[in-house]
Amino acid sequence: MATDTRGASGESIDEPLHIEGEDHLEDVTTEYDVVLVDFYADWCGPCQMLEPVLEGLAGETEAVIAKVDVDENQPLAGAYGVRGVPTLVLFANGEQVEQHTGVLPADRLRDLIEGYTE
């Protein structure tokens, strides 16, 4: 089992973190080593299917799982080229390293995250 994810403040994040805008996303990706960002919409069926998978990964991996509601944060979604939901963007050491559109299985997401946390 992975250790708790802790930022510079020592605060642990073991559940998805809702992003409030571009500055908040930048702060999170800067503070934590590995961040998986889920660009989603409440009305999206595949997004709803992915939700429990991401909640599980938040508690069992070293990555921070961040969620961006594309309807509330359209400029932010546009800045990352999000054209469909869900879109998953992985950051490592403050830099975007991966981007995938669509639902990925839990084991594939775990492998993706662990590739940057080891």
From TrEMBL:
Keywords: Disulfide bond, Electron transport, Redox-active center, Transport
Keyword Transport: yes
Positions of region (Disordered): 1-21
Site entry: Contributes to redox potential value: G45, P46
Residues carrying the site annotation Deprotonates C-terminal active site Cys: D38
Record: active site: C44 (nucleophile), C47 (nucleophile)
Pfam families in the cross-refs: Thioredoxin
Domain Thioredoxin: 4-118
Alphabetical list of NCBIfam families matching this protein: thioredoxin
Protein's UniProt name: Thioredoxin
The organism of origin for this protein: Natrinema salaciae
